[in-house]
């Protein structure tokens, strides 16, 4: 049985699209059963609709109780009975309820070679530090920020003249492949 995937996105959703494309082409031992976002306008939601995948939006309103938001997100995701939760450009930290419910079944893809450059601005931070090589990492989410068990990682060189946009786009090409490969590896490891 293919893994049931719930994919969480906040922006463009090109990593989600890589999963949807791999699924459509029979290269994914998984099925995206739902897409969720904290941002109502996220383009990833349009990608879900185009693929006929149900979606939901769960914004964190200013001043809202964070633990309640986390419990509600947990219930929304749990409703789709995922085998694996994929955080693919989801820009919110998961809290205790979410982590307790899904345990080691949450993965995230990050645009740097962890443990270097954790957080929301990994590409800009790598450029600011002047490193010659950065990369992409897929890891299991834990209670820290980008501190979980690393499942896959690959270096990406920083080229002369790179800016955040050009470097991030090259990293995302690697992330898309690593993410599909990691889902397939986790599926194989289950059987
Ligand atoms: N408990 C965890 N949750 C998440 C992790 C993680 O490692 N542990 N990874 C992220 C993705 N991520 C980078 O990889 C990341 C996302 C968001 C933040 C952050 O500080 N977010 C702020 C709000 C930002 C905003 O909405 O503009 C917040 O949540 O308050 C840091 C790292 C997925 N979740
Ligand atoms: N810390 C989390 C983080 O930086 N996530 C990053 O957001 C991008 C999402 O791209 P997409 O919206 O095109 O899929 C990806 O590079 C992902 O690693």
Order of helices and strands: EHEHEHEHEHEEH
* Biggest sheet descriptor: 7 strands, mixed
Round the mean pLDDT to the nearest integer and report it: 97
Strand segment count: 7
Total count of helical runs of at least 4 residues: 6
> For the largest beta sheet, what order do the strands appear in spatially?
3-2-1-4-5-6-7
Q: What overall geometry do the principal axes of the alpha carbons give?
A: globular
Question: Secondary-structure map with pairings?
Answer:
Layout: E1 3-9, H1 14-24, E2 30-37, H2 43-50, E3 55-57, H3 66-78, E4 84-87, H4 96-102, E5 106-110, H5 122-129, E6 133-140, E7 150-157, H6 164-190
Helix pairs in contact: 1-6, 3-4
Bound molecules: ligand LMY7XDAE and glycinamide ribonucleotide.
Function: Catalyzes the transfer of a formyl group from 10-formyltetrahydrofolate to 5-phospho-ribosyl-glycinamide (GAR), producing 5-phospho-ribosyl-N-formylglycinamide (FGAR) and tetrahydrofolate.
Binding site for (6R)-10-formyltetrahydrofolate: 66, 108
Protein name: Phosphoribosylglycinamide formyltransferase
Question: How would you portray this structure in words?
Answer:
Pathway: Purine metabolism; IMP biosynthesis via de novo pathway; N(2)-formyl-N(1)-(5-phospho-D-ribosyl)glycinamide from N(1)-(5-phospho-D-ribosyl)glycinamide (10-formyl THF route): step 1/1. Catalyzes the transfer of a formyl group from 10-formyltetrahydrofolate to 5-phospho-ribosyl-glycinamide (GAR), producing 5-phospho-ribosyl-N-formylglycinamide (FGAR) and tetrahydrofolate. With 191 residues, the protein is of the alpha/beta class. It contains 6 helices and 7 strands; from the N terminus they run βαβαβαβαβαββα. The protein has helices at 14-24, 43-50, 66-78, 96-102, 122-129, 164-190, and strands spanning 3-9, 30-37, 55-57, 84-87, 106-110, 133-140, 150-157. The protein has a 7-stranded mixed sheet with strand order 3-2-1-4-5-6-7. α4 links the parallel β4 and β5. The longest helix has 27 residues, at 164-190. 39% of the residues are buried. Bound molecules: ligand LMY7XDAE and glycinamide ribonucleotide. The site of the ligand Nc1nc2c(c(=O)[nH]1)N[C@@H](CN(C=O)c1ccc(C(=O)N[C@@H](CCC(=O)O)C(=O)O)cc1)CN2 has 15 residues, from β5.
């Amino acid at each position: 049985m293919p893994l049931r995937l719930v994919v969480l996105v906040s922006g463009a959703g090109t990593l989600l699209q890589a999963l949807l494309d791999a699924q459509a082409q029979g290269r994914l031992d998984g099925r995206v059963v739902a897409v969720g976002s904290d941002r109502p306008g996220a383009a990833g939601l349009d990608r879900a609709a185009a693929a006929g995948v149900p979606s939901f939006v769960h914004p964190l309103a200013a001043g809202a109780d964070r633990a309640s938001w986390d419990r509600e997100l947990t219930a929304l995701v749990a409703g789709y009975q995922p085998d694996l939760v994929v955080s693919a450009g989801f820009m919110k930290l998961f809290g205790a309820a979410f982590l307790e419910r899904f345990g080691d079944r949450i993965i995230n893809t990050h645009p740097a070679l962890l443990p270097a450059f954790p957080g929301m601005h990994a590409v800009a931070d790598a450029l600011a530090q002047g490193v010659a090589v950065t990369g992409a990492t897929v890891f299991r989410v834990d209670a820290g920020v980008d501190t979980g068990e690393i499942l896959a990682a690959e270096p990406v060189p920083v080229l002369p003249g790179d800016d955040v946009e050009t470097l991030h786009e090259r990293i995302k090409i690697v992330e898309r492949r690593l993410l599909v490969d990691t889902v397939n590896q986790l599926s194989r490891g289950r059987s």
